């Protein structure tokens, strides 16, 4: 690291001269200019001025005392203030200017150093050090272009110093070519001076007086030209500071108008090409003009049909809602309320996150995992942007130390959702949003522009990827309906989601009655799927992850040699590698599945469903509606064989009815329904049911799910189950009718079913005949009985709804 010998000399002088005082912290003599050296110089100056209360800040007391006791330091009075002259020399060395050879001597080199520095500041290059210039000497401000600084900004900075340095509250701004908080304040003060605010009133704030002054005197447009006032130059400066470089000549010509239109388009303003008030406001303050219409909002309370309609009626078309924090989070079914009102939505995730201590890489990972699971449960589909909040004024040092690592964790956590991939957005100040986005860790920014006093919003332009800008908190009211909200300006880059990107939530309850929302069942599948995704290798796709979930759900109940044959592993193109990764994924979920709840609802055998579904996925759909394959044997086929076994045994015991009656009253029936049957003569029959309601529900859902996964193999299993659940609750007969239609070609005729059942019981193909024979404990049905079985099967009397 470079060591500046002159800076070392200054540090040694400070230690030697003031190191014995309790108010002084000895410096590390390293030749590096830093705030510790500047603070030491400030305290030393206060000591020499006789100020008892020392401070790192060069505040009003230091300024007034320096003015009254020294005034401008020159060759004339330097001999009377040798110690202060020595401190000025140290400051010059730390700034990179000549400071002479002898401490306390205002030599020609000192004079040259002061003149060069003042020229770099844009001030008249005289050999005098006025109190304001002395104050600037004891800062870390640079007066030469540095790093990413631009010549255009530096020229403006020098001009501002030249024009306004004599005003009471205008202090020398840096001339480093970089737009910063101090430069922003200087610009605001300059504008206040131009609208005739007097010293002591001008304060650098964008208050009512400043706004009124701009509207009254500061509006500029094509043809405007600076004369005694400099509104055009200040407007051109504001454009350049915001990343839209304009000519800095005080003439509002075609070139300036073109730059204005470009900025207005970026900031979602009317592209007038003129310096109207709203354009001024957007250039000067992070909220812009808070009265401008907003088409987006964010709210921390659950939206009802009434409040959603209220938003829509007042011109809003997008609303941000929270995935997290119980009191603020999206409620069950709320997304349906939002999209049904014609609104779109963007999700926000915030678990406190309002102080530095919340931001670590581990916290980012954990919060992102929680966010993606919650988003999937709520029905947000792939491509949705989730905005993760940084809800405090993170400093320039905290952003790389805390916020960037936090978003690295966010990136890993979001990537853990393999089957539903979301985009990462950020909520925070302009500076936070820009730095995280430039690091490649956020695709979209939601700017907390409403926090106008945050350092991260002062002296920073809007991020290039801004999607929403939060500008005003207020209460929207119409009659008895009201809603607390934040008004947001939406950019053309915003990508809220609507009905097409949000899966509906299954609704329970008759039409006209209060609605409740059924979520827990498919939410449990989301937990299972995500847990498998965490342990899945890169070669595994959606079809493999779905298969691993289903395998684990039936492993403890259906995994003997027969079921292993029915449900082999489904492989990809790289069979050996894929097999190994599937095996590892199975082992991983087996170690953690005890922590997860088995998805279930009444009258449903989940392991049976999972095994049957995997059988269909393994062997595919039948080649025709009449054909029977192994996929059928793992589901309804062998269950029907068992029902035939039960019928024949009942007939031997005296059951007087035909197979159709038996099948229609037993297939899909509850045990309580079977127990209530009154057979003629009160015959004591075997009351067990080999094709129960639980079995039939499992068989039907296995086919419905598997057929959809065959059509779209990488579709997430929870989403398919959610769709089926939604459809079946909206129309109770949907499951039965869809099952029969998709498998047999029709839901109301027995022709295809009879042919298929005939093949089931009479096929001579070994792979069908052998397993059927293994399950048959009785004779095979004759032709007339096959027709009876098919008619009984098609009625499916107990399976109109899973919830009746």
TrEMBL record:
Keywords from the named record: Hydrolase
Rv2525c-like glycoside hydrolase-like domain sequence ranges: 311-473
Gene Ontology MF terms: hydrolase activity
Record bears the keyword Hydrolase: yes
Keyword Repeat (UniProt): no
Pfam families tied to this protein: PG_binding_1 (PF01471), Rv2525c_GlyHyd-like (PF08924)
All copies of domain Peptidoglycan binding-like, residue ranges: 229-283
Protein name in the entry: Peptidoglycan hydrolase-like protein with peptidoglycan-binding domain
Organism annotation: Frigoribacterium faeni
């Amino acid at each position: 690291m470079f060591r500046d010998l002159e800076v070392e000399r200054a540090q040694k002088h400070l230690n030697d001269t003031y190191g014995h005082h309790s108010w002084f912290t000895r410096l590390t003599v390293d030749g590096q200019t830093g705030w510790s050296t500047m603070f030491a110089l400030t305290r030393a100056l206060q000591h020499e001025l006789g100020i008892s209360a020392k401070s790192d800040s060069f505040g009003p007391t230091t300024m007034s005392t320096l003015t009254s006791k020294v005034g401008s330091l020159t060759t004339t009075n330097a001999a009377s203030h040798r110690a202060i002259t020595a401190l000025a020399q140290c400051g010059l060395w730390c700034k990179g200017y000549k400071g002479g050879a002898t401490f306390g001597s205002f030599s020609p080199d000192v004079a040259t150093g002061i003149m060069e520095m003042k020229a770099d500041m844009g001030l008249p290059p005289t050999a005098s050090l006025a109190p304001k210039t002395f104050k600037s000497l004891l800062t870390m401000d640079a007066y030469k272009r540095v790093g990413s600084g631009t010549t255009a900004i530096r020229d403006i900075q020098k001009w501002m110093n030249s024009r306004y340095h004599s005003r009471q509250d205008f202090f020398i701004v840096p001339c480093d070519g970089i737009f910063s908080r101090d430069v922003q304040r200087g610009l605001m003060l300059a504008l206040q001076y131009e609208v005739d605010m007097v010293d002591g009133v001008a304060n650098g704030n964008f208050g009512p007086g400043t706004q009124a002054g701009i509207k009254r005197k500061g509006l500029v447009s094509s043809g405007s030209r600076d004369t005694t006032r400099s509104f055009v130059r200040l407007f051109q400066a504001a454009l350049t500071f915001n990343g839209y470089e304009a000519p800095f000549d005080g003439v509002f010509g075609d070139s300036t108008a073109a730059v204005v239109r470009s900025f207005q388009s970026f900031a979602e303003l009317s592209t007038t090409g003129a310096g109207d008030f709203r354009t001024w406001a957007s250039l000067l303050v992070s909220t812009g003009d808070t009265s401008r219409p907003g088409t987006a909002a964010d709210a921390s309370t659950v939206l009802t049909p009434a409040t959603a309609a209220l938003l829509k009626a007042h011109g809003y078309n997008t609303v941000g809602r929270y995935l997290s924090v119980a009191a603020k989070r999206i409620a069950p079914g709320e997304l349906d309320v939002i999209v049904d009102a014609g609104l779109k939505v963007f999700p926000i995730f915030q678990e406190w996150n309002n102080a530095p201590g919340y931001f670590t890489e581990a916290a980012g990972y954990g919060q992102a995992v929680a966010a993606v699971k919650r988003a999937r449960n709520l029905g947000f589909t792939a491509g949705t942007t989730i905005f993760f909040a940084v809800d405090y004024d993170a400093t320039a040092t905290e952003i790389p130390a805390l916020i960037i690592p936090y978003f690295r964790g966010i990136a890993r956590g979001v990537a853990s959702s393999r089957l539903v991939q979301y985009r990462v957005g950020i909520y925070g100040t302009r500076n936070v949003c820009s730095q995280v986005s430039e690091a490649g860790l956020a695709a979209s920014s939601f700017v907390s522009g409403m926090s106008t006093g945050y350092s991260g919003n002062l002296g920073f332009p809007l991020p290039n990827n801004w999607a929403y800008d939060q500008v005003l908190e207020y209460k929207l009211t119409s009659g008895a309906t009201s809603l607390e909200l934040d008004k947001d300006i939406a950019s053309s880059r915003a990508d809220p989601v609507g009905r097409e990107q949000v899966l509906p939530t299954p609704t329970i309850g008759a039409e006209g009655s209060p609605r409740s929302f059924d979520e827990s069942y498919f939410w449990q599948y989301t937990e299972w799927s995500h847990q498998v995704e965490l342990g899945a290798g890169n070669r595994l796709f959606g079809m493999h992850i779905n298969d691993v979930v289903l395998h684990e759900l039936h492993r403890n109940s259906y995994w003997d040699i027969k079921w292993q044959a029915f449900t082999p592993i489904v492989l990809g193109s790289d069979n050996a590698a894929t097999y190994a990764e599937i095996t590892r994924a199975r082992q991983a979920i087996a170690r953690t599945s005890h922590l997860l709840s088995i998805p279930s609802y009444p009258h449903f055998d989940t392991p049976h469903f999972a095994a049957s579904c995997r059988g269909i996925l393994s062997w595919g759909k039948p080649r025709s509606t009449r054909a029977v394959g192994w996929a059928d044997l793992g589901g309804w086929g062998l269950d029907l064989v068992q029902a035939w076994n039960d019928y024949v045994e009942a007939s031997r015991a005296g059951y007087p009815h035909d197979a159709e009656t038996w099948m229609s009253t037993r297939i899909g029936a509850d045990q309580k329904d079977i127990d209530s049957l009154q057979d003629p003569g009160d015959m004591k029959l075997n009351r067990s049911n080999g094709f129960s309601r639980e079995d039939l529900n499992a068989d039907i859902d296995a086919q419905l799910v598997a057929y959809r996964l065959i059509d779209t193999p990488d579709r997430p299993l929870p989403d398919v189950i959610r769709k089926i659940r939604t459809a079946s609750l909206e129309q109770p007969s949907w499951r039965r009718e869809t099952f029969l239609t998709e498998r047999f070609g029709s839901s109301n005729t027995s022709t295809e079913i009879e042919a298929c059942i005939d093949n089931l019981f009479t096929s001579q193909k070994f792979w069908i005949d052998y397993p059927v024979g293994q399950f048959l404990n009785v004779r095979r049905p004759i032709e007339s009985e096959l027709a009876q079985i098919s008619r009984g099967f098609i009625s499916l009397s107990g399976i109109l709804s899973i919830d009746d």
